[in-house]
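User: I've been going back and forth on whether these two constructs are worth ordering. Before I decide, could you fold them both?

Assistant: Sure. I'll take them in the order you sent them. The first construct and its C-alpha cells:
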Amino acid sequence: MDIMSKDVVYAEIPGTRREVLELMSRTGYSSLPVVKKDTGKYVGMVSLSDMVEKSDEEQLALLVNRSVPSVSPEDELKKIAEIMLKKNIRKLPVVKDGKVVGIISIADIVHKAIPLLNIREPIKNIFREKVLTVWEETPLNVALKIMKLAKTNVLIALDINLKPSGIITEADIITQAKIVLIERSSSLTAPSEGTEWDWDVQTIIYVTKGELHIPRDIKVKDVMTKKIVSVTKYTSISSCARIMAKYDYDQLPVLDAEGNLIGIIFDVDLVKAVVNRL
C-alpha cells in the first residue's frame, strides 16, 4: 500500500493512562495503535476520547478499543475508505502477520490519492454549512470541553469582528497539556481477620493516576493556527485536496466573496464524494 504512513507511533500493553497521555502530548497524536509489549502483536486503538469516557481506568488494557479493525497492505484503497466511512474511523492500522507495519488515515487518502483524480466538480454540494466556532479569547480548557460536548476535534476561531482568525484542533490542545498526578481516596468497609462483617471497620484506599491538565491561563488565540487558508464553494474537489495536502490540514473554512464564514469542508467529506472513484 503506497500511501500508508510507515513511521508508526504506538502504545504498549502493559501500560498506563499516564504513559499514553505523555506519548500523545509529546507527539500531538490523539489516537494511537496499541500492541503487546512482549510480542508486538496488534491489540486495538486508544484515543483521547476513550480516556475521557473511562476516566476512572488507569491501565491501558482497560482503555484500549479492541473493536477497531485492521487492514492488510494488500487491501484495495476503495475497500479501506469504505471501512473508514462505515465505522466512522479516521485511522486504521495496517497489519501483516499480526504486527503493525503502518497506519493509513483519511488524510493520507485525501493528500496522496484524491489530487491525482483531477476531479473538477465544485464542493458546493458537499461542504457543511453548520460550523462550530469559538471566540479566540476562550480559555483552552473550555475549548476542549466544547469539542467533547459537540463531538468534534476542530473549532473555527472568531475575532471580535466575527471574522475567522484561526483554527484550533484537538491535537493543538494536547501539545499544550501537562500530565498531573491526581490522588483520590475512597472508604471500603471490611471485616477484620477472623470476624464477621463489622460495618465500623473501614479501609481507606488511595488511587493515584495521571490526568491531562490544560493550564487555565492559555487561550485559544495562543495555540490556534492563525494562518487562514480558505476555499470558496466553487473550489473543485481535487483542488481542495491539494490545498489540504500542501498545508497538512484536515479541514478548510469556506468563505464567501466578502470573506464571511459560510461553512467548512472536512477531508472526510472529500472521501465520501469520491469513494466510488478510488
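The second construct, handled the same way:
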Amino acid sequence: MSRIRSAFEKLGKNGQKALIPFITAGDPDPVLTVGLMHGLVAGGADIIELGVPFTDPMSDGPVIQHASERALKYGVSLKQVLGMVAEFREKDTETPIVLMGYLNPFEAMGYEKFAVEAKAAGVDGVLTVDCPPEEADQLLDSFTNAGIDPIFLIAPTTTSERIAKIASVASGYVYYVSLKGVTGATHLDFSEIEDRVNEIRKQVDLPICIGFGIRDESTAKSASRIADGVVIGSRIVQEIEQSDCQSAVKNVTAFVTSMRRAIDG
C-alpha cells in the first residue's frame, strides 16, 4: 500500500482530515529545506507537497513565484530536489511526499528516469500542474511502473467529462482548486465549494483535498469540514519569507501547529 493511501486510511479511522502544507524546495536557502520539512511534520503535517522551482510557475501567485525565484538564485535543480527528499527520508520513512511542479523539468530529465529516481529518493506522488490527463500517457506509464501516485487538479470550471478522465488515471488523492485564479487568491465561497466537491465525489473515488486560498484557522477549518484534506501553500511561504534563516523552521512549525488545531477542532 502506498504511503499516501495509508495516511488517508489512518486519518479516516481516527476521524481526522489531512493537513497538507506546501513549501518550495530551496526557499529561502537550500540548506533549510530538509529542516523545514521536518518542522512541517512536527507541526502536524500528514503529507508534504514540495514544490520544484520553475522559471514560469503560471498557476502560482506572486508569493510562490518569488519562492521559486529565491530558490533558483541558488541554482536549485530537480536533481537537488530529489536529493533533499532522500535526505529527509534518512529520518522520516512514513510521511508521504508529493512533488508539485511543471512538466519541463520532468521532461528534460526523461520521464522514466525521473520516475525511477524519484521513487528511489522516497517520492510518493507527483502533481504536474500543466500536464492535462489527455496528454499524460507517457508520463503516467512511467509513474505506474515506478509506483508513484499521479495527482491531478480539478478546477471550478472542469467539465464532467474531464473529471471522468481524471478519475480514470489519478491515484492518491485529487486536488480541488477552490477558486478561479492563482495560488494565494482569496474570496472563498464555502457553500459553492461544498456543492462542487459533492458533485465531484459522484465521479471520483479518491480523497478530495482543497487548496488555493486556505490561509488561516477559519478557512482551514471550513475547508476541512467539506474535504478529506486541506492544502496550505502561500501562507506558509509567506511565513518563510518574513522569517530570518534562524527562525524560519520554528515559525513555520508554529503556524502549521495552529492549522492542525483548527482542523482537528
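Notes on the second construct follow. The chain has a mean pLDDT of 94. The longest helix spans residues 248-264.
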